[in-house]
Amino acid sequence: MQAYLVEFGNFMLRWLHVIAAIAWIGESIYFVMLDNGLRKPKAAEDREKGVFGEMWAVHGGGFYHNQKYATAPAKLPDDLHWSFWKAYTTWLSGFALFIILYMVNPSFYLVNPNSNWEWAANLAGWEANLLALAFLLGGWVVYNEMCKRISPNMERDGLLSVGVAIMMVVVAYLSTQMFSGRAAFLLTGAVMATAMSANVFFWIIPGQRRMVKAMKAGEAPNPLDGKRGKQRSVHNTYFTLPVVLLMISNHYSFAYTHEYAWVLMTLFIFAGALIRQYFVLMHQGKIQPAYPAVGVALILVAFWVAMPSQSASSNAQVADGSPDITEVTALINQHCVACHAQSPTQPGFSAPPAGVVLDSVEQILLQKEKTQQVVQSGYMPLGNMTNMTDEERAVIQAWSE
Question: 319: how many CB neighbours lie within 10 A of its CB?
Fold first, then answer.
């Protein structure tokens, strides 16, 4: 019952996380589109009252007229719309999911026993949890300090973008050395997602509150608040596509079990940012297909890098030819059935992961190709908690009937 309650809670929390993320990202993308799509107001009376730009749109059978003020409007309404709870809910629900799915069993999900760094491979579970928290916090601190030091007045944002890009390459590399593959992809995305939410919490919303307070007091708002809010919002929009991809990556073992997983992450991050740049410019009336073309090219490079080698069909040689089903069944019973059974005996599972059942010969034969794929890639058993050897992996890989 306890495993079922945890799994059901995970299910509902994931639903909340996805809903909040869709709402936040959708609203963010909309406002970036709106800001970049503004045109000089045609009516003289609008220009006289401080309207900087406007956009006419049609949606759902109605017409909309959006206006942006360069300075304080004559009067601010009491029901001014604020955009922040979606961001906070997305991060809080995501962090709660991380606790349930990873931090509750860190030795299984976080520790990378195959790390080239001996200290990382030998981390205790509590040490891995602390390291993951420090990784998230450190990512925000480094990113925030870069913004403050490289472009404090938003006059060197180009150089700052280069710095942030280099930082993400370093984050991708460090994550794959410190944590297991699936956790590394998730934590790299979480570093960006944490920066996005923290941008809203520490800079965008406080700056907007100061601007509103100044306007209501009849004072001129500090222009740096507006510029800084715009800077951090722009960063958030370029983080969006890479974050979404990294958050769904745990379904694709070919990526996070690869020896160059950090390279794949880097390629995907840059591809997402370039594709997003195309749409940002498109809303400004600039069509520059080179950006998505390069983005797609990077994805194709990632496809090539991740492609399994024909010569690497197994990690070891099988001495006596193709093994029979009896030998394979014995290995699967030893290493897989604790989780992949109709009634799993592995703590934390109330149902077989991904619906894959391997507790009968018929089911093993039905799942043959998938089993060989995940065993050969090293994805299964998760964290190799049953200590499957290379020779045993080779037996399953060489199985033909």
Answer: 8
Q: Where are the beta strands (DSSP E) in 211-299?
A: none
Pairing of the two strands 62-69 and 51-59? antiparallel
DSSP character string of 25-62? HHHHHHHHHHHHT-B---SHHHHHTTEEEEEEEEETTE
Give CA–CA dist 302/265, Å, rounded.
9
pLDDT tens sequence across 256-296: 888 899 999 999 999 999 999 999 999 888 999 999 999 99
Do the Cβ atoms of 167 and 120 come closer than 8 Å? no
Q: Cβ neighbours of residue 153 under 8 Å, at least 6 residues apart?
A: 224, 227
Residue 108 token pair? 């299984």
Query: How far, CA to CA in Å, does 312 sit from each of 106, 252, 268, 300, 397?
Result: 30, 19, 24, 21, 11
139 phi-psi bin (left φ>0, alpha ψ -120 to 50, beta other): alpha
Report which secondary-structure segment, H or E, holds 280: helix 261-283
Encode pLDDT of 289-343 as tens digits.
Answer: 999 999 999 999 999 999 876 544 444 445 556 688 888 889 988 888 888 988 8
Which amino acid, residue 369? E
DSSP structure class, residue 354: G
User: What DSSP designation does 311 have?
Assistant: G
CA 163 to chain centre: 20
Residue with token string 């007229």: 65
Question: Measuring CA to CA, which residue among 355, 395, 352 is closest to residue 375?
Answer: 395
Residue among 195, 203, 70, 201 nearest 141 (CA) = 195
Mark 58-87 as b/e (b = at least 16 C-beta within 10 Å): eeeeeeeeeeeeeebeeeeeeeeeebeebb
Neighbours of 326 (CB within 10 A): 8
Question: Which residues share a beta bridge with 65?
Answer: 56
Token look-up 């800001």 returns: 35
Q: Which residues contact 259 (CB under 8 A, 6 or more apart)?
A: none
**Assigned token pair, 285:** 């009336």
pTM of the model: 0.82
Helices (H), 151-222: 157-178, 181-198, 205-216
Amino acid 135 reads F
